[in-house]
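Supplementary Methods S3. Input chains for the assembly prediction are listed below.
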Amino acid sequence: MSVTPSTYPLVPKIQKDTILSLLEVGKRADGRGLEDIRKVKIIPNYIEKSDGSALVNIGDTVVLVGVKVEPGTPYPDLPDEGILMVNAEFVPLASPLFEPGPPDENAYELARIIDRSFRETKSIDLKELAVQPGQKVLVVWNDIYVLNHSGNLIDASAIATLVALARTKIPNYEMNEEGYLVKKEGYKGTLKLTKKVITATVAKIGKYYVADPTEEEEYVSDARLSVSFTEDGTIAGMQKMGAGSLEEGDIDAMVDLAWKVSQKYFSEISTAIGLPPQE
Amino acid sequence: MGKTGLKLIDENGIRIDGRKPDQLRPISMDVGVLKNAQGSALVSYGKTTVLAAVYGPREALPRHMTLPDRAILRVRYHMAPFSTTERKSPAPTRREVELSKVIRESLEASVFTELYPRTTIDIFIEVLQADGGTRTTSLTAASMALADAGIPMKDLIAGVAVGKVNGKLVLDINEAEDSGGEADMPVAMMPNLGKIVLLQLNGTLTRDEFKEAMKMSIKAIKEIYLIQKQTLRDKYAKMTEEEKEE
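Predicted structure tokens for the full assembly:
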């Protein structure tokens, strides 16, 4: 059951007037312009024991993604494909608002937004992961770990997921005599990323649209729109969040801004990890 | 060809269930269908059938989850085990958790919750039969149930899903079109206010296709809105007649 949150801090609501009067003159509480993003820092291969990983900071928001590739059974309707599993954990050390326990609706929503963007664009070649079609495939477990919540968890998670998957090595699994896949030394290659996909979030506060919202801006916003894009500008997913509403014109403007922001993310990602340009 | 290699729309633009690209399925609505609930509604878009019930405003327990300035909403979107082709376990899935959240946020945009501080308004949605577009049918039904319960709202909410099959945009997609198509875009809005309360996209669309899909959904939502209003009017007309007879 989804319940109206009653634990959100009240302070930002009081500060809404201040935030709005700043927006009126084209500024934000942290000094940014409306369309500016915070400083992005990406560290690929942060966890040695994972098969792929990335630590991403956007301002004070910190997200760590770890990828593990393990044997599993395919979906009956897609017997010759491996599986991408995206999971998100909002661990309690990341925010006073996070509690230990199973993922809440926000974690599920975040994971499913990222999952959909990669799944629908067929960003990773899942066919390559079918070791024995119909019987044994490799499952790519993409675990998103939020380490510090300072707003815009979706974009940070999308960047970290893209970098981690782009840097994922496929362990060397071999079938033994009993028909089980056993892990051998070394890796047999890297995960094939056929398309880069990113998600950018824009918040509407009053009549203003702001890129990369902080936690405080998220609380005072009327609604947020997360838009996923591939590099050629195709929209690869969308999610309106928040208990407010948007008009048709708002959505157009927000998709435009999200596209601009996604360009910045793509360029940050490319410089940080030197991904080769898409063919 | 769709994902499954199935042809979902023919050369004349006719879909697998015989509809035109911009044609809704037959829609039926009824309100006040459950005795115990303060408000209820049964809504069908073709074979997709959803039952929604509203309990409240009522006392919320534990009380610390209530808010001092307005009512909270508690929403559960749930699919009956027999609603799908293969039995669905009644335990909530990740999908149902997410949909409960987006449906709650949508309804929250319409309800005057500030009229009922420290209470809860509970909205229970059961998908009895699923054939595509269950979240939008659910929102249409939940909004009708709230109206039937007499809870003040800024406007009713109506929803519809636009999809893309074999490269063509189609309105109010069914399950075959959803699973075999390239995109599923559920939209819900408060039609009289022109406010969009739910927007999701699962799949890929170009910018132009997206704009076109928005236009198609808004036009259809206005049609659904007329049926909603007529259904509510008919119910109250019937109630007045019954009162006269007494």
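The CA atoms of residues 88 and 144 of chain A lie 4 Å apart. The two ends of chain A are 45 Å apart (CA to CA).
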